[in-house]
Task: inverse folding
């Protein structure tokens, strides 16, 4: 049944997924009448849809590559790292979620000119872009790694897969905007759940006696914080990075701006935190099990693809690959849409052509989507050429260079009145300079001591996780000190103080949707159709498995999964009749 590699039914499952998703994107394009429909889903999305979209946008194929690599090498610490996320999202809900909604903006940077100044606004448009672009490039690279391993039979390189996947992401984001991204995210979460739970159950069956399996694991695999992922790393790198991201990552906080009312935020946060707590053990058991079932894997980045190929029946590997690319598709769909919104509203409309019509705004947003997607793919190809670093190394080093400096002023701008525009620019400069200097120094030292690190664990620790933690703390400290010094060394102008007072007065007013709801796609109707259609296609492919491959067990598993997808689709369609109309 398992371990037969990629077969025709797997390719057909992937193709079926692409056909359904892209068809919905093009069908939804006709509902994009106003710029807020394209960039903020019309401000009328229900909490459960915004919550699943936030959850899906918070990770990509990096989750399957990086954390299963960690699970394979170090054990349950991969789960512990992800269990930091629910705490961070709850804190984010308490600190900034309602303030983001009350800022009443279409893009995450929309309040910066009012809160600080026009200069600060533009500076943050252009300094925040590199961090988002670098992060997105890593996501395309990680997705391409899994596809290159699983689809070796096609003879395509990782570079070719990056180009293909990038093109799919651009097409997906181009037509439907934020509304289609969020609707598709819910479908992707449903497919993800079915896929990873199926692999989880089959992995449990493969390992057999759980007690004997645990005893066969390497020493330290049950340690929640082994080096190089000790408690200092978990606190000073993972916790701080995640907390900042969940409060100021453009694509994530944009989800708050899609809600009809801030009253729904608590439900949204509870849903996200629940998913983030339940899913990590299911995600990473295959990576841990692979240490026993597939010992000696040369490149641990490939572990999720290899263990899936070993365990899954014909057809199900295609579902896993659809899940992997859907993870990146959801994240990059949100990212591309948000970044195009920032460039359209916060740069082009303000500085180049203030009189844009609604139709011109949508056209400009789509043009920026293509540009952003193209640059992201080129960056992914550049990162693929770097030697001596794993994906987590690159991810956290890029964040250390730009993250605190570009995110802290956003968060502090919503929380505190005392920081002014001058202090914000000082903080941005101090944080970026310190972060970039430390990251460049680290890249240099890792190249110089690459051979010594292989035999010296202490040096390896300090040039990797130790340096990451220190760089993050230094960059955060430099940013905050810069903001304090810049603010206190010169009085805030009266005009700026008046604007800030008016801004914080608005933050004290609860947000309620005001205006008319234009014709739009029903999320229940579209989600139900997508799940049921995909399930029917998988069911048809399962019949092909039975007829052409004579594999009854694979047929039963594939068919059961297909019926689960169809049933989920029908349940969502039934929910349409019970849902209150806006």
Result:
């Amino acid at each position: 049944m398992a371990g037969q590699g990629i077969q025709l039914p797997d390719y057909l499952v992937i193709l079926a997924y692409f056909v359904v998703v892209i068809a919905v994107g093009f069908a939804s394009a006709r509902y994009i009448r106003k710029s807020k429909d394209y960039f903020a889903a019309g401000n009328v999305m229900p909490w459960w849809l915004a919550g699943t979209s936030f959850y899906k946008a918070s990770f990509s194929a990096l989750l399957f590559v990086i954390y299963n690599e960690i699970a394979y090498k170090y054990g349950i610490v991969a789960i512990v790292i992800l269990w930091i996320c629910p705490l961070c999202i709850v804190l984010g809900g308490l600190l900034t979620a309602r303030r983001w909604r009350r800022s009443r903006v279409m893009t995450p940077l929309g309040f910066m000119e009012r809160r600080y100044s026009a200069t600060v606004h533009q500076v943050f448009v252009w300094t925040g872009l590199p961090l988002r672009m670098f992060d997105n490039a890593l996501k395309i690279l990680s997705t391409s790694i899994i596809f290159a391993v699983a689809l070796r039979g096609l003879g395509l390189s990782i570079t070719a897969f990056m180009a293909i996947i990038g093109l799919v992401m651009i097409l997906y984001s181009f037509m439907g905007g934020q509304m289609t991204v969020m609707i598709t995210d819910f479908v992707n979460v449903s497919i993800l759940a079915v896929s990873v739970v199926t692999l989880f159950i089959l992995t449990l069956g493969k390992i057999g006696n759980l007690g004997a399996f645990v005893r066969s694991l390497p020493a330290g695999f049950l340690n929640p914080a082994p080096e190089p992922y000790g408690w200092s790393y978990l606190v000073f790198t993972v916790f701080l990075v995640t907390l900042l991201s969940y409060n100021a990552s453009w694509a994530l906080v944009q989800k708050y701006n899609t809600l009809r009312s801030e009253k729904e935020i608590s439900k949204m946060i509870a849903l996200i935190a629940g998913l983030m707590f339940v899913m990590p053990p299911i995600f990473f058991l295959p990576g841990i099990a692979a240490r026993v079932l597939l010992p000696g894997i040369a490149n641990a980045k490939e572990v999720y693809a290899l263990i899936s190929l070993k365990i899954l029946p014909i057809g199900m590997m295609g579902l896993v690959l659809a899940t992997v690319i859907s993870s990146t598709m959801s994240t990059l769909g949100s990212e591309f849409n948000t970044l195009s919104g920032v460039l359209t509203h916060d740069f082009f409309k303000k500085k180049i052509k203030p009189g844009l019509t609604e139709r011109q705004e949508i056209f400009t947003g789509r043009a920026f989507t293509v540009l952003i997607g193209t640059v992201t793919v080129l960056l992914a190809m550049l990162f693929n050429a770097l030697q001596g670093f794993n994906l987590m190394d690159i991810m956290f080093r890029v964040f250390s260079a730009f993250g605190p400096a570009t995110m802290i002023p956003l968060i502090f701008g919503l929380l505190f009145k005392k920081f002014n525009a001058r202090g914000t620019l000082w903080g941005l400069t101090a944080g970026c300079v310190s972060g970039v200097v430390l990251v460049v120094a680290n890249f240099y030292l890792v190249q110089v001591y690459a051979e010594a690190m292989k035999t010296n664990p202490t040096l390896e620790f300090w040039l990797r996780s130790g340096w990451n933690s220190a760089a993050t703390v230094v960059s955060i400290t430099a940013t905050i000190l810069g903001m304090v010094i810049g603010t206190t060394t010169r009085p805030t102008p009266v005009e700026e103080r008046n604007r800030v007072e008016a801004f914080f007065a608005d933050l004290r007013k609860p947000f309620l949707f005001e205006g008319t709801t234009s014709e739009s796609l029903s999320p229940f109707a579209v989600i139900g159709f997508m799940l049921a259609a995909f399930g029917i296609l998988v069911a048809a492919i399962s019949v092909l498995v039975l007829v052409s491959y004579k594999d009854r067990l694979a047929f039963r598993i594939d068919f059961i999964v297909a019926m689960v997808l169809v049933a989920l689709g029908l349940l969502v369609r039934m929910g349409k009749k019970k849902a209150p109309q806006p």
